[in-house]
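Sharing in case it's useful to others searching the archive later.

Someone asked me privately for the predicted structure of ATP-binding cassette domain-containing protein, so I'm posting the question and my answer publicly. Question first, with the sequence:
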Amino acid sequence: MPDIILSNVQKSYGGSGPNAVSDLNLHIGNGEFMCLLGPSGCGKTTTLRMIAGLENLTDGEIRIGEQVIDSPAQGKFVGPEKRGMGLVFQSYALWPHLTIERNIDFGLRLRKLPKPEREARVAKVMAALGIEKYRGRYPSQLSGGQQQRVALARMLAVNPGVLLLDEPLSNLDARLRLEMRAELKRIHAEFHTTIIFVTHDQWEAMTLATSIAVMNEGTLQQIGSPNDIYERPANRFVAEFVGSPPINVIEMGKGHALDRAAQDWLRPRLGDAARVGSVGLRPEALQLASSEAGVPAGSFAHPATVTGILPTGGSWIIELNVEGRVIFLTTTSCPTLTGGEAVWLYARPTAIHAFDGDGQRLAGADEALARAEGGVQIVRKA
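And my answer, the predicted structure tokens:
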């Protein structure tokens, strides 16, 4: 399947409200696993439906390679049945009166494939998804995770060039979701199918995707690899949406002691610190020292008080109070702290995310903070 290219795509449902999708530009490469990530109502499902052909564009165009499949300006629209795509909804939509084997070969029968080829394809996908022993059962006799595998097998059997998944794991419990994430990762590696996956779950996106497109209120906020999205968020929305516990944000100019300390620390390192509207500190990037003497030279630091320790299994969340402001820190080492204990929190320069007054990542700040770390330029691969 050639690349899928969305150019200046708009979708409006009429009325005076904002667009469901505004000026969206996406390039989805052949064999890519792309996640459309964002909160409810951000336009991700609408985007998926436009790619599938279930929604018409208001403006812009969608191409598969050089073929335009939807363009209001050119008066072109290719129906969903001719796009070579398979769509798996949140609801599995299995035929209740057909066995699992018949559900899987349903699309192949519609295409009038010869029986030997149908049987070979069905056997291959059932083996790949570990559902051979259920071939004679009916959907009502399977668990949610097993039904999800059948829905995926039905799509994979027709060998679509693109697999479109609309929050397919949201109905599963935590253990089954984990198993199905691993299954999808393996399917992508084995079948080399282009996958576009819609989710509001950041961990699904981070663990599955080769690239993530973060959306909010119908607009694309950032596109990049999972590491790039997490380590170099393009703006405060991305920084605050991706990460659990969420990133700690320090607002400049609010008059709080922590704000003033951050501004004083940034000024000699960034030059014009007045351009900084806020800074973000990931909880896992923060560390603690028992006294100021234990803070490494060059770090941003501030005294704090421990107000809570929350075990989460393999890690601990430490709640800190900095003169009335709550800061969260995470650690994988069992803390020996107690509530009410006075400590110093600190972060190395390269752990600090600087944003301007509009919430956009501050250009040049990463390089300046890397020099402050010790003259070593850190290059992150996309």
